[in-house]
């Protein structure tokens, strides 16, 4: 994401990564999904989430904020899926 062109105070970002579904091979039919959520605040405009499930759907939201509080009306939402395993050589 890009930093604001005219920041009003010191900007930071609230990142929320939530599991968006369930993997059929991990749950039996009729079992509700346990959607884990990771929430992180950062001043960087790059962030690496680790230890995610392979080939799994996630929803990422990025909300800009300053000391005055979050700007929820500027939240960006992205629907993602992690990669599958990398083939061994």
From TrEMBL:
This is Protein tyrosine phosphatase, receptor type, Q. Coiled coil: none annotated. Keywords: Receptor. The keyword Zinc-finger does not apply. It comes from Nothobranchius kadleci (African annual killifish).
